[in-house]
Amino acid sequence: MNILQNIDNWDKNAVAWINAHHTAWLDSLMVFASKTNVWIPFYAILLILLLRIHKQKSVFFVLGIALVITLADQTTSSLMKPFFERLRPCHWQGWQVPLHLPDGCGGQYGFASSHAANTFGLAMFWWLWLKKFYRMAWLLFLWAGVVSFSRVYLAAHYPTDVLVGAMLGAFFAWAVFKFPEKVLKV
């Protein structure tokens, strides 16, 4: 058995175990956490906080976040998912026990997770930009972790889909943050 088969087996076992431990209240919480539109008030609060802290410089932060999210989302959705064609857990037919799917299934392919890439990209960019606000940063990483876990709980992604998405989002945040400094010598 090669390493990719071992990872695939571990992923499937992890999804099966997590999915088997579902509860009604956790179903509701995970569906809520996974919906992108419910986070709009949270984003609005972050934007207001940012405007109060940095005023005119906020435009650079907003442009940076837009670039990070675009890179993370398009890389995962438009490049990786069609290239790797890894079925989401909810589309894989080999389960011995049917999965519990409180939020349906979604698209066919899941590698890598756009939710994880986008949320960890936002959290990392915020942390890099506003290092003196560490308390806010750990809350954003906690939020990104909950959103990412919700994707595994809902059987929309395997743990490695989420892990790779999170690393990709964090990398894009770092690259967008460092680009002016390293390339433009600002």
Automatic annotation (TrEMBL):
This is PAP2 superfamily. Keywords: Membrane, Transmembrane, Transmembrane helix. InterPro entries: PAP2/HPO, PAP2/HPO_sf. The chain crosses the membrane at residues 29-51, 58-76, 109-130, 137-156, 162-180. Residues 62-177 form the Phosphatidic acid phosphatase type 2/haloperoxidase domain. The keyword Zinc-finger does not apply. It comes from Raineya orbicola. The keyword Membrane applies. Pfam families: PAP2. Signal peptide: none annotated. SUPFAM superfamilies: Acid phosphatase/Vanadium-dependent haloperoxidase.
